[in-house]
């Protein structure tokens, strides 16, 4: 009588491992008996990927640390050791180091005081009434502006002198003592003494060259 040999269990491929827990598995198992991870009929032992992934992760972490350190150094250089950023409000301001004394504000200059001005003297009122006459029977010193034989010239000179503020007039030499006859004399004012008349003659000599002081006495 021939005895049938019992079926043999297929050898487990030592190369086949569960991708979930790493335990040896049969390629024909649909699931890992240890962790329940799906195996599948087309499972192939994956390459050992853990070491390359670990190296990549380390490189990424190192790059991130280096980048963060570089940004920190640049930020510190830009802000400087003596300033502290105090916000990102509308103004984006910075504050000085608490140990630093803030500079004193510049003094405000005092407003300029207006300079006092001396009012200009009021101009002399022009004499627009025409040449004046010598007061009757009056003896006084006067300023002789012009002596001429032309009555029109004498009247015009007297009018110009009156327009400049002088009390000017015309007298006829025939009616007064110590004058050459036949002349018209343009005079300006009456004075009590020769000094006053002389001072006035000097004042008006710019517009009336040759002006001089003279005593006038009617005949």
Overall description:
The protein is built from 3 helices and 6 strands. The chain has helices spanning 50-79, 151-163, 194-203, and strands spanning 83-85, 94-96, 140-148, 168-172, 184-191, 212-216. Strands 4-5-3-6 form a 4-stranded antiparallel sheet, with helices on one face. The radius of gyration is 64 Å and the shape is rod-shaped. Residues 81-96 have low confidence and may be disordered. The longest helix has 30 residues, at 50-79. The termini are far apart. With 219 residues, it is of the alpha+beta class. Helix content is 24%, strand content 15%. Strand 1 (83-85) and strand 2 form a beta hairpin. The protein has a domain at 140-216: Sporulation related repeat (Alpha-Beta Plaits, 2-Layer Sandwich), CATH 3.30.70.1070.
List key phrases describing it:
219 residues; alpha+beta; 4-stranded antiparallel beta sheet; 3 helices; two-stranded antiparallel ribbon; rod-shaped; Alpha-Beta Plaits
């Amino acid at each position: 009588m021939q005895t049938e040999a019992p079926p043999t269990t297929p050898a487990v491929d030592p190369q086949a491992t569960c991708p979930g827990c790493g335990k040896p598995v049969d390629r024909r198992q649909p699931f890992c008996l240890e962790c329940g991870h799906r195996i599948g009929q087309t499972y192939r032992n994956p390459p050992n990927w853990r070491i390359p992934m670990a190296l990549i992760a380390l490189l990424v972490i190192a790059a991130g640390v280096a980048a963060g350190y570089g940004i920190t150094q640049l930020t510190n250089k830009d802000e400087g050791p003596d300033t502290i950023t105090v916000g990102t409000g509308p103004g984006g301001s910075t504050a000085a180091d608490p140990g630093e004394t803030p500079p004193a504000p510049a003094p405000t200059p005092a407003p300029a005081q207006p300079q006092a001005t001396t009012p200009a003297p009021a101009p002399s009122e022009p004499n627009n009434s025409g040449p004046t006459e010598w007061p009757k029977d009056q003896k006084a010193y006067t300023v002789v502006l012009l002596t001429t034989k032309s009555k029109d010239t004498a009247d015009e000179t007297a009018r110009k002198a009156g327009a400049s503020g002088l009390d000017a007039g015309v007298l006829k030499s025939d009616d007064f003592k110590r004058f050459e006859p036949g002349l018209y004399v343009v005079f300006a004012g009456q004075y009590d003494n020769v000094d006053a008349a002389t001072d006035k003659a000097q004042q008006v000599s710019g517009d009336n060259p040759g002006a001089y002081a003279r005593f006038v006495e009617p005949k």
